[in-house]
Amino acid sequence: MSLLTVGSVAFDALETPFGKTDKIIGGAATYITLSASYFTKQNNLVAVVGGDFPQEMIDVLVSHGVNTAGLEIRKDEKTFFWSGKYHENMNSRDTLEVQLNVMENFDPKIPAEYQNCQFLMLGNTAPAIQNMVLDRLDSRPQFVMLDTMNFWMDIAMDDLKAVLPKVDCLTVNDEEARQLSGDYSLRKAAKTIMAMGPKTLIIKKGEHGALLFQGNEIFFCPALPLEEVFDPTGAGDTFAGGFIGHLAATNDLSFQNMKRAIVYGSAMASFCVEKFGCERILDLTQVEINDRVQEFVKLAHFAV
Amino acid sequence: MSLLTVGSVAFDALETPFGKTDKIIGGAATYITLSASYFTKQNNLVAVVGGDFPQEMIDVLVSHGVNTAGLEIRKDEKTFFWSGKYHENMNSRDTLEVQLNVMENFDPKIPAEYQNCQFLMLGNTAPAIQNMVLDRLDSRPQFVMLDTMNFWMDIAMDDLKAVLPKVDCLTVNDEEARQLSGDYSLRKAAKTIMAMGPKTLIIKKGEHGALLFQGNEIFFCPALPLEEVFDPTGAGDTFAGGFIGHLAATNDLSFQNMKRAIVYGSAMASFCVEKFGCERILDLTQVEINDRVQEFVKLAHFAV
């Protein structure tokens, strides 16, 4: 099935306990489409960059089968830029600088060839823009997934609550689930959030794994304990790309298949954090991915 | 097989966001033996209490099949007392008061009938005392498990490092694993700690589950997401009691069976936190425990 991803394509500058980068390629939609490319070849991108964005990186996306017809290039403007520094424990980070640039007035245009996509991934951006994308589609996709963050809960909670009834699946981290619901218990928080619209909720817990909620069902997928987490940037987006990429590839929205999708997403995220930026997810093989998924099987399975 | 548990039997006073208790029964060995009692009937306790400890509670232990021949009662002294207050998130707590009382000169005496026990659980207490217990056994048990905490790493690290080569399995939480090893990555920390002696390491992550390490094998068991965590006191000890209780009952030290034991331990801990103190683990049925274990199967299993 055809997947449409809308979100940021950006420059990042990162500092982790392991090193520092100059401007490298980042952005939610970059990680999502790259990760999804290992699952589906109908992989359509809507994003906006400035004239400073390197053609070589667009070529890399294209070489991964990403359709960049919806990638707007504003020659006279600059690409969205984020710079951040991770704390020693890698679980928290400080934003050092944000230059919105082209994202200040992101006006997502959906190419005609993208209409009637069956799977839609709304990467983390302003809820009003995520809502606008839904309005601009001729028909509602079969499965709509939305990622958001605490920043939008702080400044645009009403917009977020307006779009939530229109989505099938929401992804947030544990602190965001608590903020959005007002509940400390994640089990209670999940009920509260699902009552806001999304029938499926994924709560990401970083190095502690991810929880999938749907009705009364709960599934937990651990994160793979790694010798070194080099750079967590993009792990959540890589996870989301693997998750929705697997769903789009299999066109099976059963809870059993969503569990499988969570494992594939977690496997993709476990690669992402092994190098800076999106470097590690540029040249994975199917064998590497399958081997990694088997590590999750060994990690999580037991017989009683 | 016969299990011997050495550790504290105590009074606790607790404050959680859900309420407050006066002095209630606590202590590592109380939780461990109660939890283990659902698995093994050869359940021997070595501990010390004061004359203020209620006979009714000793009767409760006995009614659970706990052998209290090794429970020393010092009529003229007072029982160990700990009081603590949990923070909003339940993952951290402040100690408000400690009265060592009888624990100040705990001199664990092993009754002759406990000699030749095959499974030994050294509950959290001074490493020098844990070492002393090993010295006082005529023969080394088949499986020795030791629990400790950051407090002993701060003030008795040499004693702890002296006892570690003599144990088969160590349990610590994630922060303690980092402190003991000097490694941030839990995978690296596990290697470092296993090189100190224990061939098996359990890293407890509270609401984030538990990791089991042995050689190159890793198993992760999630914690069950609960609507309400009422009081986390004793959860780690209840976990340990279920773990070693299952091992003693089955007398199977394979990695597969240890995985099963971790799940049983986690199921027992998930009950423990549902009420104050040890109340919830006083009257469980085998059906409740099996149903809870099935919830872990549903939570963790997937097919790829």
Distance between the termini of chain A: 38 Å
Which percent band covers the strand fraction of chain A?
A: 15-25%
Reading side by side through the largest sheet of chain A, how are the strands ordered? 6-5-1-9-10-11-12-13-14
Mean pLDDT of chain A: 96
CATH architecture label name of chain A: 3-Layer(aba) Sandwich
Count of alpha/pi helices of chain A: 10
Describe, in plain words, how this protein is organized in 3D.
The structure is a homodimer of 304-residue chains. Chain A has ten helices and 14 strands. With 304 residues, chain A is an alpha/beta fold. The first copy, chain A, has one domain: Ribokinase (UDP-N-acetylmuramoyl-L-alanine:D-glutamate ligase, 3-Layer(aba) Sandwich). In chain A, the strands form two sheets. In chain A, strands 6-5-1-9-10-11-12-13-14 form a nine-stranded mixed beta sheet, with helices on both faces. In chain A, strands 2, 3, 4, 7 and 8 form a five-stranded mixed beta sheet that branches. In chain A, helix 3 links the parallel strand 9 (119-122) and strand 10. The termini of chain A are far apart. The interface between A and B is large, with 38 and 37 residues.
Architecture blueprint of SSEs:
The structure is a homodimer of 304-residue chains.
Chain A: E1 3-6, E2 10-16, E3 19-20, E4 24-26, H1 28-36, E5 43-50, H2 55-63, E6 66-74, E7 81-86, E8 93-99, E9 119-122, H3 127-135, E10 143-147, H4 150-155, H5 157-163, E11 169-173, H6 174-181, H7 186-194, E12 200-204, E13 210-214, E14 217-221, H8 235-250, H9 255-272, H10 286-300
Parallel strand pairs in A: 1-5, 1-9, 2-7, 5-6, 9-10, 10-11, 11-12
Antiparallel strand pairs in A: 2-3, 2-4, 7-8, 12-13, 13-14
Helix pairs in contact in A: 1-8, 3-5, 6-7, 8-9, 9-10
